[in-house]
Design goal:
By secondary structure, the protein is α+β, with helices and mostly antiparallel strands. The chain is built from 11 helices and 11 strands. It has 2 domains: about 180 residues, Jelly Rolls (Sandwich); about 120 residues, Orthogonal Bundle (Arc Repressor Mutant, subunit A), CATH 1.10.10. Helices cover about 45% and strands about 20% of the residues. Strand 4 and strand 5 form a beta hairpin. The chain is elongated, with a radius of gyration of 27 Å.
Length: about 300
């Protein structure tokens, strides 16, 4: 089983140290360990590297990802002209190793799982980037160029160098992940049905305050209403009606906070409900409290903030 790491696309990377190690620098006499992730990429191999009790021979272009505090050293004298780049960095959230993620096949299945694009979805979608612990990428020369720029950035820091170093590091990780996906043939375009689904979600986002009929949807998307319902449910695990109600109540909560002088009836009409009593019923089902109680809670919270 190949060692794979999953890295959230929302990860915060902070590059701490970088460098270029060459054969004329002693490496096999002592060990190294640090509290950061460390990515090594061989420029000219072979590089004889021992990680804990594992002895490795890394060839030109190979990458190796070390986890925090992993002890590593050279296990024999380096051959002339060998060299490699290295970069130490932190990651928040932490990378998930294959021991927790499962096999590469399972990780790829997670990557391909379609995530919700709904405006009402709670939290952020942490779609992962997949990176192998040890890997010889196809785009090795492009990645070496990125590494060269990263090392140069950290060697002569100025201005927003930390921000730029994060960008270089992210591009390196992306290139490694892209290479893996291409190898596994998982870089194919998403199906046309998913594109239609996103267009459908966007349409609802833009028109939720209006009365949306099945005829309107069929005319707009040139598809049967039943098909659109199935498509929406497939990718969102929700329904048209439920999502429309969530959008309307989300907007109503904003209006109740922003405009305390507005009546419940006015707010209901502005978000697409003609019946204020039905609006209150739906509001309570979704928000867990009535519009009036919600507004009272907001006013109490604002009062406490002013007092503080």
């Amino acid at each position: 089983m190949e060692d794979v790491f999953m890295m959230s696309r929302l990860v915060r990377l902070d590059v701490k140290w970088t460098g270029l190690h060459q054969a004329n620098i002693p490496f096999h006499h002592w060990g190294h360990s640090n509290p950061y992730y460390e990515l090594i990429m061989v420029i000219d191999g072979p590089v004889y590297l021992q990680v804990e009790d594992e002895r490795l021979v890394l060839q030109s272009g190979e990458c190796l990802l070390l986890t925090p505090w992993q002890h590593h050293k050279g296990w024999r004298t380096a051959e002339p002209n060998t060299s490699f780049y290295w970069a130490q960095f932190t990651a928040d959230p932490a990378l998930i190793h294959s021991e927790a993620a499962g096999s590469l096949k399972q990780s790829l299945r997670l990557f391909r799982r379609h995530h919700q694009d709904l405006r009402t979805a709670e939290g952020a979608d942490e779609e992962p980037l997949l990176v192998l612990r040890r890997y010889l990428p196809e785009r090795r020369f492009d990645i070496l160029l990125l590494f060269e720029k990263l090392v140069a950035e950290m060697k002569q820091p100025n201005g927003n160098f930390r921000f730029r170093s994060t960008i270089w590091m992210m591009q390196i990780m992306q290139a490694l992940s892209d290479s893996l996906l291409k190898r596994q043939q998982w870089d194919t375009p998403l199906p046309a049905t998913y594109i239609t689904y996103r267009e459908l979600v966007n349409y609802l986002n833009e028109h939720y305050t209006q009365t949306i009929t099945r005829q309107m949807l069929e005319h707009r998307f040139r598809r049967k209403y039943e098909y659109l319902c199935q498509l929406f449910n497939k990718y969102s695990s929700s329904t048209f009606t439920k999502y429309l109600q969530q959008l309307r109540i989300q907007r109503a909560q904003y209006l109740l906070r922003r405009h305390p002088e507005a009546t419940i009836e006015t707010v209901a009409q502005q978000v697409g409900f003609q019946d204020p009593f039905y609006f209150s019923k739906v509001f309570k089902q979704i928000a867990g409290t009535s519009p009036s109680q919600f507004r009272t809670g907001v006013e109490s919270e604002q009062g406490r903030e002013k007092a503080d």
